[in-house]
Input
Amino acid sequence: KPSIYWYWLPDPVPAEIESVRLAYPDFTAGCAAGNTKTPDGPVMCDYPETAMKKLGSARLAQAPEALYMLQRLEITSPQIQGIMSNLTASDGTSRTYREAACLFAQSHMDLFRKFVPDCIAKPLVAPQNGDLVFDAEKLECVATTVYNKSNFQHTCFSGQDAGTEDRSATTVRVGLRPSLASRLTTTVAIILLKDLLGYTVEVVDLAGAPPADWGPEMSALLYDVDITNAHAAPGSSAYRQYTQVAKTVLDLGEVGWGERYGMYTFSPNLDTHLNADYFKYWQGTSAPSAAGYPKFGDVDLPSVLGASFPVCSRTDFSWCGSGALEGYWAPPQCLAQPSGCLEFFMDSPARNTAYFEQLTRNLGLVVVHGYYGSKLVDLLKQRHTQGSPTVFWHWEPSPLLALLGAVRVSFPDFSLGCNTADNQDANSGELLCDAPEATMMKLGTARLPSHAPEAAYFLTQFRVLKADVTSMMLMHSEGGGTKDDNDAACSFMRQNMDTFRTFVPTCISRPRVFPNVDIGDTVFNPDSLSCETLTCPEHQVLVASGARVFCQDCSKGLVPSSNQKDCSFCEAGTAVGPNRTQCVACPPGDFAEFRGSTECTQCAKGRFSSGIGQTICTLCAEGSYSNSLGQTACEVCGSQRTTDYRGAFAASDCRCAEGYFELPGGAACESCMDGMVCAFGSAYDHIAQWTPNSSLVIPEAQPGFMTRVGKPLLPYRCKVAVWCPGGAPGTCALNRDPSTVGCATCIEGTYAGDDGECHECSGGEGPALISLGIVGSIVALGCLSFAVNNNILLQPNATATCGIVMGLTFTGIQTMGAFSNLAVRWAEPLKSLFKALSLLSFDLELLKVECVVGSNAVVNYVCRQLVAPGCAILILAILYLKKRFVKPSLEYKVEAVNTIGFIFQVFFISIVMSATSTFVCYPHPGSAGQSMTSRPSVLCFEDDDHTMMTVVAIIACVLVVLPYLACAVYATLKYPTFVSSGTGKDSSLRMFRFLFFRFGPSTYYFGCVVLLRGTLICLVPMLFRTEAAVQMIAMIAILLSFAGIQQTLQPWRSGIANLVDGGMASLMVLMLACAAMSTSFEDAEDVVGTLGAVIFSTIFLVAMSVVAISIYRRLIPSPFYRNFVCHHKADAAAQARFVQLLLVEKTRQSCFIDSDDLKNLDELFDIVKCRVGWLVVYLTSDTLRRPWCAGEITITFQTHQRLVPVRTPSFRPPSDSELEDVSTYLDLSDTSLVQYGITNAFISEAFKWLLQKQTVDVRADLIGRARIHDVVDGILEASGAAREKNMGRMISTASKSHDDMLVVSSDPNDDEAAASVGILVSNIQESILEFVDKGIYVLADQDDLSRQDMADAVWGARAVVVILTPGSLSSAEQLQAIVDAMGVGDSLPVVPMNTPHFRFPSEQYQDRLMAHFPSDTANEVWLRIQRLFKRISVFFATNASASIIQAQALEMLTRIPRRRERNSTKPPSNDQLLTLEAGGRAGQLATVEPDDAGFTSRMRSI
Output
């Protein structure tokens, strides 16, 4: 249907419905004048069209191709409508605007190609001359002019000398002008761009380029940089056009030197003719002629030029000469007579055309100009070589000037020059001033600052002076040097690098790159093309965009870091401060919950923040409230009141806190008593109104505690927690009496079971158990009375060990039973185990006594105390019946005391525990007092029952415990008396055998120690009733102390028993440690700390004391021995001991003998090392084979080397091979010396040293003790000690009267026997004089003893002591003395003393006597020898310690009568004596019976 409608164009709707516009007047242009925007307005023309403009941002210039296209783009209204027609496809579907536009463009590509030509749509990668390329500066496609170009490859600086920044991705194209000065200057710049700035440099060869085309070429970006441009003088039209108008070229400043043409001279006499370089010098001819300068005609110009003559021709220049002056130009003053004028050598009239010719003419110089063209340079070099002065035309800078050493001839205005009225006609020009210097400009393209900003900055700073160029030219091959452009430039730069580095500062050569750049650093600013010091306001930070570093504000909620390099969020609890430089902590009352907060927020009601920097407001704790905003603290309820929720904001919710209760009347809140629970809101006033179903809150007992109804605020601690479930007053477990303290008593008709609950008594169960216990006790006691009184001699050791271990076990069980009285918490099953052990302390609850006698505490306690006396009475009765009916011979008193003592010994801990249980109490909280541990229902020292029980306890201690302890102590004190009788019939010893026979003889007293330990164990719970920590430490201390004593003494007869005793003590300590782990000692921290400090101090003091003693002993060795005797006991035990005694007697200083301590070699070697003056080595056959002797000798050699060797006849030194390998010589079967640091090499070296020393030999010409005395004198002489040469006061000398002396007989041929005598005499000589006035007579010491003298001595002796050594019965002298002594009869006391190596004679000995003597004599001798050995001998262990030897010597004295018992001491006559051999010494009899195999070795081992 036809329609007319309003709409607008362009729009897809009109196109879609194929509409056309309705035309009004002025259709095309339209108008808008006078539109009143009402229908009655005056408008009479069509609506105007609004022109659509294309706009672009300034930065669009960075996309010049896009800018080019957009400037030319045109789309008409019909074209728009065509695009819109594409919005609907033929199938009726819709297209997007982008799809419609794409379809239109594809169908009108020819139209749009003119907006996007190929120079930008398809740019050429390598355009050739004449190709169209896009000129970004002109925004047009232009024809290309291409010069030769190449990348600069030469490297001058590298490593530390080069720059650090790699900008090789950016290429800088540098134009290279052809002159040497330009090439060298440009090469310097190129090297700096490449090596120090890191650019890729493309060198564009401008040798064929028109110099004046620099503007178009640089605008076309044929090259970026022109370092030496002489045609861009500031002020010139080209300069203004390209640098100020088009702005396609940048003025980078002057390079530092200029190009200038002029006249130059060189002469060997130039120093003499000082004015030759001034123009007035040439206004005459005399001076120059005198100086040798050439005149016209001196040089044959035609012959020099040859075919190229003339260079100056009128054909080219009208002012050139002719005729004789052809090829020359002469000023008017020389035209008439040119030969009288001087000659200036010129290049070509085309160079500086007619400039210097005008100066010659106008200034009146008497000079003709000759033009030599290309031959000029060679001619000048020739004349320079010949030393011919010359004036010539040239330019500077030039290598030729440097080569010739030429100077410039100055004309007026020498410095500036001029160019006025230059008409290039030599004959008419009016020039009167020197040629000006052409300024060398540095130029760069407009894109250089953005393309290579560092290069742009560097080039503005870059300068090369004329002197620099001259220096480089001299290095160059064209200036007489040897280098090319690159090497000459590089060499010069290396010589002047400090200067060139000012053009390339570190801010561009070694820039600090973000983020490694800080405030205050110098960085390059590509915008200003300058190196600047970085500064930022305190509230800003450094940021980077590419290479650019700038300052920027932090985002909201962030502040700069300390180095202003990044922004950081303000942490929670802080907010951005007013100066935006730092985060400020929120003040009290405010908070900031999140990071990056811009301000702090006030706390809400019910919350507070007390400190600065809070991240959240804290809810008011229970017991406080806050009723306003921004509070720094909550109001406290006070008076132990609190609230039942956090965050309260009213004071009305404050009530008594948990653990407190409200006093009557609500006056205040009182702390809840220990053992009670006061829930929130508890009040005393609620108790009277409380019922089980009530909501009222009252103070209640904790589980394990109870309160009685009459005293609701007095809690009692229950011994067993299950007795008291806790709760309201009067609450106890089932069947427990709530009226008793701690619910400790079962109600009548019930008894306490093992599980802690009260059970009903049934029938006669209680009496039956009691009866069974009594019968069992009687049977056990009866059996025990037989067991403990058995004959000890009939018991095997295994039986005794079994009995001892059983006793120890029973004692240990009782000790553990005592642990139940400690105030510690025992975990199951120990808790139940201790309950079962209570029977051992006579707790009769297990027998259900309560079902018989009730729960009366006093009655039960009395029954406990009667157990021990009852057992004693039963034992007496049993033993009475045993004596009457079983064993009439029974010693009633002995067995009664032993049996009762044994029972009391075994049950001692139980007896003491039972007696003292009334004093073992545990505390209740507060003022509730203490209860007995064994009877918790009884309050200690408060109840009447406790008073009665205390009386009973005292009686039990006085009548039972103390008497038993007194008997034990008495018996222990009397034990030595019991034993001393030796008859074995003393009933006292057997009566108290229970105390002694379990222990070793030397530790008989240990029974009292065991009783003391038991007593202390029982006293611990009583003395420290409430301090669990002290109880534990005391108990552990007792167990460990007595265990240490026991392990030290090893008192038990059985080694196994000693181990069991120590092991039990250790295990009980571990058990106490387990209890400590389950017990809280928080209330005893002070006590534990004090005890711990005391223990630590003790440990420290003991350690320091040991260290101090060790240091003292190291600095002052004690005891110190003057001499140390090293010997082999098997060969010289007696000799060594006697030598020791004599050394002490003669020097009055101590002497050590190594046989006194051969077990601890370490200590023995330490004595030799530190505490010995001289080592005396008694060398017998095997001395050096003993390891201890080898060690002593080696240590002496390694330390003080004070040694005296004593050589006996039996000594045989080791062979050389044995010395080399001492392991084959030493007897190391029992020990190793290596563990003491003594190696075989050390021993070998020491033995060699020993064998080289001077020895003290045992003299064969002396007899008896005199031999040993002589050895001792030799030792003292060798060691440099003062000595007394005597044999002791016991040696008889001249006297022949030996009546009433103690006669000692020994083998006179045996040094061991002589030494044994000496030892005996030394130990008894003081004591013997008390009852034998005349002393001792030693037969073996008498050298001239006659047969009668021996008889007289024996028959007149008080007693005769016979020292029996291995050779005694084979020595005729000693055998004679034995025969004489035994012939006196029983009236003469004869005491045989057998030494360790003596062997009693066998039957074979009699046969030898028969073979040696007549039969009657032999029989009598054998009879008397037998009589001797029927006497009780005294064992004289000469190889034992000094104390044992002394004891044995003194024991011999007990056999000597204190007075003479015989009246007649006269011996029979000599012919009546039984003489074995006539005369003197008879030597040795036949050898005593041969040894059985191994006998000797066994004796030596012993």
